[in-house]
Amino acid sequence: MSVTPEQSAEALQGMFKFGQSLAEGFFDFLGKQGVAIPQVAPAQAPQLPLPEAQELAKLQRELAEAHARLWASMAQARPGEPAEPMVKPQPGDRRFNAPEWSSSPVFDYIRQAYLLNSDYLNKIADAVPVADGRAKARMQYMTRQYIDALSPSNFAATNPEFIQAALDTKGESITQGIKNLMGDMEKGRISMTDESAFEIGRNLATTPGSVIFENELIQLIQYAPMTEKVYKTPLLIVPPCINKFYIMDLQPANSLVRFIVEQGFTVFLVSWKNAKAEQSHLGWDDYLEQGPITALQVVRDVTKVDKPNVLGFCVGGTMLSSALAVLRGKGEDPAESLTLMTTLLDFSDAGEIGCLVDEAAVAAREAAIGKGGLLMGRELSQVFSSLRANDLIWQYVVGNYLKGKTPEAFDLLYWNSDSTNLAGPFLAWYLRNMYLENNLRVPGKLEMLGVKVDMGKVDMPSYLLATREDHIVPWTSAYLVRQILGGESTFVLGASGHIAGAINPASKNRRSYWVSDSTASVPEEWLETATEEKGSWWLHWIEWLKPRSGSMVAARNKLGNAKYKVLEAAPGRYVKEKA
Question: N or C: which end of the chain has fewer CB within 10 A?
Answer without folding.
Answer: N
